[in-house]
Amino acid sequence: MNSEIRALEPKTLWNKFADLNEVPRPSKKEERVIEFIKDFGTSLGLITEVDHVGNVLIKKPATQGFENRKTVVMQSHLDMVHQKNADTDFDFDTQGIEMYVDGDWVRANGTTLGADNGLGVATIMAILESTDIAHPTLEALFTIDEETGMTGAMGLEGGWLQADILLNLDTEEDDEIGVGCAGGIDVTAKRTYKEELIGQGKKAYTISVTGLNGGHSGMDIHKGLGNANRIMNRLLFDGFENFGLQVSEIKGGSLRNAIPRESFASIVVDTVQAEAFMFEINELIKTIQNELSIVDPNLIIEVEAVDLPEKVMELEVQEGMLKALYAAHNGVYKMSASIPDLVETSNNIAKVTVGNGEIVIECLTRSSVESSKLDLVNKLRATFELIGCEVITSSDYPGWAPNMNSSILKVLDELYQKLNGEKAHVAACHAGLECGILGQNYPDMDMISFGPTILGAHSPDERASISSVQKYWKFVKEILANIPKQ
Q1: 464/116 Cα distance (integer angstroms)
Q2: Contact (Cβ atoms closer than 8 angstroms) between residue 342 and residue 425
Q3: Cis bond leading into 441, ω under 30°?
Q4: How far apart are CA 147 and CA 458, in angstroms?
Q5: CB–CB of 189/365 below 8 Å?
Q6: Which of 79, 147, 344, 462 is labelled catalytic?
Q7: Is 146 a catalytic residue?
Q8: Residue 272: which residues within 8 A CB-CB, separation 6 or more?
């Protein structure tokens, strides 16, 4: 299946991407891909180092005539988001990604593609292996765990890199030059509850929410996409308010940085209320599907009768949970006042797990303004603490403040216009890039971000544009050939 990928142009890049995608590399399980990259650097006879957290650094001398140019670090992250469709049989821990060509797009078979940030990694590998591409002294930095905490960038120590310029290859629109990004923080609410035995005269159902597009919880948060956890809570809240619905179990979402595509719940209602409940919930399902018909036309909500579960939540805690999830902010919280059309602050209610006497609600809050991020975190904390939850914050990382006077920005801006006959879109993004973290230990390094067009990142609809990769590859080579002198 991947042979057709290897025939695409530029072959050197796509072949490296195909090699990389044969290596399982979920976040926090990067041992195999670290060894893969380390062996790659060693096989080229290049200085290859691994730091104490698992980041890999490969150094390549300048090509002839470029020894007096500024040193450049090319940087991408090794891990990928592991999302798959519910009906896809796939094990991210053991299997390589199965890819195919669909017109101008490369896609994966029912899973995320790993173009985020695998195309960046493959680009750097292709440059390191090349013998005919002009470039200054290079430091190739491959970080780990970008997608679930940025612990690789956070663990990178000052002094390891010597470069003057950093090229981050993690932007997902080929006409955009990134100069800033949002910071983020994980918010987790937990509490226990008593389970109750189910009385007589009850009927049980499962409710499933599937078919949503999902997407990147930063880059796609403004699109009004359906959030499976919010949809499920709306259904459960209505059933509880009108028919005394009782919750046995909820499993919704999977990763903090992905808008949740699926949610599943096991519930119980009184038998005498069953017919009215089914009529009401089916009407509500139609309403929700109609509301999301433009952005999520494939939404499926199913309710099926099943055998009774053993236990349900105590009603008082259940009521508090359903109300708190209704009240908790999800989506865009504030737009930027300084950069037009940029989301400043947002929250993604990413994962809701209820069962065995425990509630766990996991969110990812993002903002390019630290005070606004704290404000939204406090709002969430207050909401969940009111129902007796312990609220924990973790994996806090800073944003990357734009520097419009950047010298490398000027280089890329001029080159893009020369190559494409139009100006690039210079912008900050609402995703979390590692530049802000790396800048803490390397404050004088001039940083920029760019990349090929990737759509649907963090979802099984992830796809990379073939023509865009060709455009981007020319841009990369021109940038390296035009790095300023020291």
Answers
A1: 9
A2: no
A3: no
A4: 9
A5: no
A6: 79
A7: yes
A8: 201
Closest alpha carbon to 434 in 83, 231, 155, 52: 155
Dihedral angle of Cα 307, 244, 226, 252, to the nearest 10 degrees: -50
> What does the block give as tokens for 278?
């089914």
Q: How far is CA 82 from CA 2, 44, 110, 113, 212, in A?
A: 19, 30, 11, 9, 16
What's the CA gap between 251 and 247, in Å, rounded? 11
Alpha carbons 259 and 221: distance in angstroms, whole number: 8
Q: Are 211 and 299 in contact (CB under 8 A)?
A: yes
Q: pLDDT (tens digit, 0 to 9) for every residue of the chain, 486 residues total?
A: 578 999 999 999 999 999 999 999 999 999 999 999 999 999 999 999 999 999 999 999 999 999 999 999 999 999 999 989 888 999 999 999 999 999 999 999 999 999 999 999 999 999 999 999 999 999 999 999 999 889 999 999 999 999 999 999 999 999 999 999 999 999 999 999 999 999 899 999 999 999 999 999 999 999 999 999 999 999 999 999 999 999 999 999 998 999 999 999 999 999 999 999 999 999 999 999 999 999 999 999 999 999 999 999 999 999 999 999 999 999 999 999 878 899 999 999 999 999 999 999 999 999 999 999 999 999 999 999 999 999 999 989 988 988 889 999 999 999 999 999 999 999 999 988 899 999 999 999 999 999 999 999 999 999 999 999 999 999 999 999 999 999
The DSSP call for residue 283 is H
Point out the catalytic residue in the list 116, 139, 145, 146: 146
CB 371 within 8 A of CB 238: no
| Residue found by looking up tokens 């750097």 in the block | 124
DSSP 85-135: -TT----TTT----EEEETTEEEESSB---HHHHHHHHHHHHHHH-SS---
Tokens 């009215």 identify what position? 276
pTM: 0.80
The CA-based dihedral angle spanning residues 368, 371, 372, 375, taken in that order and rounded to the nearest 10 degrees: 150
With contact defined as beta carbons under 8 Å apart, do 77 and 20 qualify?
no
Is 434 part of the annotated catalytic residue set? no
